[in-house]
Write a structure and sequence with these properties.
Blueprint: E1 2-4, E2 7-14, E3 18-26, E4 31-40, E5 43-51, E6 55-63, E7 66-74
Parallel strand pairs: 1-7
Antiparallel strand pairs: 2-5, 3-4, 3-6, 6-7
Length: about 80
């Protein structure tokens, strides 16, 4: 888990250009935030999803035929 304080950001490292979409879900599975699909060049990208209340969230990044998920803990 990745603890954070209010503001949630995601860092992606892409080996090649890809269309990426990112969704953030709360612990009950409801969508808490979405970054619309965006074409990103290869390299490292940092994206801010916004401010969120204290809790556990799941971040899902989707690109091409790959889906990656991680948990994020927002603390006060």
């Amino acid at each position: 888990m990745n603890p954070t304080f209010g503001s949630v950001s995601v860092i992606l490292e892409l080996p090649s250009s890809a269309r990426v979409s990112i969704s953030l879900y709360d612990i009950s599975g409801r969508i808490a935030g979405v970054l619309p699909p965006t074409e990103l060049l290869s390299g490292t990208h940092s994206m801010i999803l916004g401010e969120f209340r204290q809790g556990i969230y799941f971040c899902v990044a989707e690109l091409a035929d790959l889906r990656v998920a991680t948990s994020i803990v927002v603390v006060e």
